[in-house]
Design goal:
By secondary structure, the protein is mainly beta. Helices cover 10% and strands 45% of the residues. The protein has one helix spanning 2-13, and strands at 35-42, 48-54, 59-70, 76-89, 95-103, 106-110. This is Larval cuticle protein 1.
């Protein structure tokens, strides 16, 4: 009887679930999302690119290139300029796409969920 009960607990705890509620102390096994496409390229001179897509519709692509800029003392410095995008399905079922780039001026992202202006002060 105890062996049957333990076997049932073991089987039940191994069942994949999608609704995990850690706030109520539930522990559950969640099946990892599978990657259905993945590509990458790295050049010895520095440029790179990669992209992937998962079975749940998440996509990402990015490329980077070296760029020579002048620093604060007007000395040449090499930086990596990155451009990319990622997409996912939001809680309302809409596909959200974020485009971004990063260079010597910092990281910059654009998309429907990214705030565009400074918050107003009262």
């Amino acid at each position: 009887m105890i062996a049957v009960a333990l076997a049932l607990v073991a089987v039940a705890s191994a069942v994949p679930v999608t609704d995990v509620k850690p706030e109520v102390g539930l522990r559950a096994y969640v099946e990892p999302v599978k990657t259905i496409r993945s590509e990458s390229s790295q050049q010895p001179e520095g440029p790179y690119s990669f992209s992937f897509e998962t079975e749940n519709g998440i996509t990402r692509e990015e490329n980077g290139q070296l760029k020579e800029v002048l620093d604060e003392e007007n000395k040449p410095q090499t930086v990596v300029v990155v451009r990319g995008a990622y997409s996912y399905t939001d809680n309302d079922g809409k596909i959200e796409t974020i485009n971004y780039y990063a260079d010597e001026t910092g990281f910059h992202a654009e998309g429907p969920s990214i705030p565009t202006g400074a918050p107003s002060r009262r």
